[in-house]
Amino acid sequence: MALTTLIYGGGPFYPGPDSALPTINKTNFTTVVCWALHVRPNGDFAYNDTLIVSNGTYVGDTNWGDQLAEVKKGGSVNRILFSIGGWETNDFYHIMNLLNTQGDGPTSILYRNFQALLNEIPAIDGIDYDDEGNYNINTITRLSRMLATIGYQQITFCPYTNSAFWINCLVLLNKTNPGLVTGFNLQCYAGGSGNIGYVKQGWIDPLQKAMGPNFDAPAFINPGLWCKHGDDCMQGMDPKQINSQFKKWKKDKIQGGFIWLYDDIEKCGNDPEAYADAIISGLS
């Protein structure tokens, strides 16, 4: 099975003179995760601080769709996800309130805005959930089923804690939409740093138990590490350190991983390909 290498990135994955989109498919990452999509109380979507969808209409950069489609041509990237949320964001609270007040049908603002986003950028394969506060199972399952109805092909979860919650969401969704959720992108840095030595015991084993013997739990978990970052670029891990950690995870039959965050790789003047190769060689 081919290894999965994901890279999360913010501003560099949006069009502009300094965009990384023209070169990201030459880095050996297989999945680009555009982070972060924020859902405002009225249902508007912002990519970080830039309004991109409002009242059922795409209002972002009109080159984004073509540029993301180009990313998937002739290079390493074969999947594009948009990630919702992040630490100390209210996106999933806003989604919950909108689902509770407007529902999840075609006339609701969430449905219309997600449809407008996919219509404008059909290169998007799925949506990644970085819910770090709300943890409402009805919100996660309703949102996921709505996204599947609209035409999004995949959902991924990006947890750092609360494995029981995320596994329960998967179990429920697999009953109604089998195969829709395609992986857990497990944060093993910052608040999730305790997961580094706990991937098998804390995530793979309970996932295997919940999903049954025919489910490949190790292949479902993609641990993530933070590259070199900080004002002096002395925090985080260099490619050699990341390679060493993925070599340890190989014994758990892990088949993918991610790097957080492209913006920091760029800021610190490091080579994104070296980070992708650190995962690949560690798991090979």
Percent helix: 25-40%
What's the overall geometry? globular
Question: What is the radius of gyration?
Answer: 18 Å
* Structure class: alpha/beta
Low-confidence stretches: none
What strand order characterises the main sheet?
A: 1-2-6-7-8-9-10-11
The overall average pLDDT, rounded, is: 98
* Tally of contiguous helical segments: 10
Beta-strand share of residues: 15-25%
What letter string, H or E per element, gives the SSE order?
EEEEEHEHHEHEHEHHEHEHH
Number of strands: 11
Task: Calculate the terminal CA-CA distance, rounded to whole Å.
Answer: 11 Å
Query: How many strands, what sense, and barrel or not for the largest sheet?
Result: 8 strands, parallel, barrel
Question: What features would you describe in this structure?
Answer:
The chain has 284 residues and is of the alpha/beta class. It is built from ten helices and eleven strands. Strands 1-2-6-7-8-9-10-11 form an eight-stranded parallel beta barrel, surrounded by five helices. The longest helix is centred in the middle third of the chain and has 14 residues, at 137-150. The mean pLDDT is 98.
